[in-house]
Amino acid sequence: MPPLSNRYTQLVGIDHPIVQEGLGPFRTPKLAAAVSNAGGLGTVSMPGMPVDIDAGARTFREHIEECASLTDRPFAVNIPVGVDHEGNVLPFTDVYIKMVLAAREADSTLASRLTVMTTSAGFPGPYLQAIKDAGMIHQHKVGSTRQAVKSAEAGVDVVIAAGFEMGGHAPSKAVHTFVLVPSVTEAVDVPVLLTGGARDGRGLAAALAMGADGVAMGSRFIVSEENSDWHPNYIQALLDAQEGDDVAFNGVYGPCRGLRNAASEKILSGAVQAPDGSGDQPTEVELERWKIESMQLSQTEGDVDNGLVLAGQVSSALNDVISVAEFVPAMADEAAGILRDLAAKLQGATSVRT
Ligand SMILES: Cc1cc2nc3c(=O)[nH]c(=O)nc-3n(C[C@H](O)[C@H](O)[C@H](O)COP(=O)(O)O)c2cc1C
């Protein structure tokens, strides 16, 4: 019997309330399958926003099919909702969400495994009904209590409360998990996952104590044996990171957290130049493309100085490469043990007093 079975694990059909959340624009089908096979929920990440979005959708679909071939357990996809200045949803989001729904409709085996759609960044309003009609569980990542309430009222099944210490794109309100999570769990009735800063059973126990139903991690799972698609230099960069080595810079959808290096310093100092060699400032589109290509430079080619290394603050506390298969159940056991010990200590203290 899994030690921390709860309404979230029952809703999603997993053993442990532990999620490997989206790690786009990077390849994660093997990692996602490993986390799902270990009893958690793995997530296939979106592959980026290439100029040819249909080619991006084909790559994404290959990743989804690879994951489905490696696990018969539930897994998720993560699709950020990009929005332009007028509030219109960007084409990549639309194409990717429709691709996922079509892929499931065409393949019932895939549909029985790819059961969770996680959205993030902008509000997923235009897609809520289609995701529900497809029978998928809809998780949405938010950075404020107001967004959590809006999402739950709109019918989202699970809210992921994202604290500012998280890796990758972080909430613009910059609220940290310890403040945000209790406010969100107080405000909504749907299951809540904490994301940002969790790394082991202590973080999971703390999340449960704050009223959350589980945790969604990014950085911890990057540093794992099963994350074999990523360049070893990326993994080593996270292992080498010390406290204070992370920084928030302007990403693609707002603030983004990664390691301090030549690439993030270039953004912070406004030194990125137009690609035509003129020395001019890049246009907004050119700057976004530079950022995405720079992210992929570190992840696929291992250039962790000139490429952006997205990572959470928790990287400074990651000192070992985990085996996902062993780690996920052990993390749940550790959290359950902590909660049991605390309850027993409280019981002891109470009986001494009475
Ligand atoms: C390398 C990297 C890429 C990420 N890409 C995405 C993404 O594509 N979509 C998304 O919603 N979150 C993304 N995130 C955020 C993670 O899903 C997760 O919420 C975050 O890593 C949690 O913080 P932690 O790193 O402290 O565990 C990314 C995080 C990292 C570290």
Automatic annotation (TrEMBL):
Which EC number applies? 1.13.12.-
GO molecular function terms listed in the Swiss-Prot or TrEMBL record: oxidoreductase activity
SUPFAM superfamilies associated with the record: Inosine monophosphate dehydrogenase (IMPDH)
Q: Does the keyword Oxidoreductase apply?
A: yes
- Lineage, top-rank taxon, reads Bacteria
**What's one Pfam family here?**
NMO
| Record-linked CDD domains | NPD_like (cd04730)
Record keywords? Flavoprotein, FMN, Oxidoreductase
Among InterPro entries, the record links this protein to: Aldolase_TIM, NMO
Q: Per its UniProt record, what PANTHER family does this chain match?
A: 2-NITROPROPANE DIOXYGENASE, 2-NITROPROPANE DIOXYGENASE-LIKE PROTEIN
Q: What is this protein called?
A: NAD(P)H-dependent flavin oxidoreductase
Upper lineage ranks? Bacteria, Bacillati, Actinomycetota, Actinomycetes, Micrococcales
